[in-house]
TrEMBL record:
PROSITE patterns recorded: GNAT
Listed GO MF terms: acyltransferase activity, transferring groups other than amino-acyl groups
Entry protein name: Acetyltransferase
Domain N-acetyltransferase, first and last residues per copy: 7-161
Amino acid sequence: MLRTKRLVLRPLRAGDEDWIIPHITDPEVHRWLTSVPHPYTEADGAEFVARFAGRPGTLALVADDVPCGVLTIEPSNRFADDRPDDWELGYWLRRDHWGRGLMTEAAMAAVGQHRAEHAATIHSGWITGNAGSAAVLAKLGFRGPTHTEERHAFFHGRPVTVERVILPADAPFQPLHGTADANPARP
């Protein structure tokens, strides 16, 4: 578990699908995600939570006791078999929490902890046109775009262009307000 000035980042747990489903299916959120099924069903939400619950690399973001998003730093092949075994940062935030800097704050803490535990390059990217995600990754110090790739986006029903960036293992990084919490039982 991580705490920042405004957030708690905790592992997913049973029942999280109840808030994930209505927010990840918001078309303004869903359209910027490639690996999320469309339509996204209750079974999809339950399967996602069951698969990633308790994993330290998949975190629920909670602001003022309200779950508001998910952040992952996982090997990318955990999401799709055709992806490499590289560390991949992914995230989404419910729309009513956009524009407050919460994702930047969460990602700074999570990347900071990950960098303390793993000396590895982290990969990420955004669907072309997603200025919010591009800004978050730039604030974190990701470099690029290194290249673009076409990736199937279920919401769109076709491939979309993804701008790919990296945070090299040797790049300077200064975590923002993130601290690990030694008591995972706390909410």
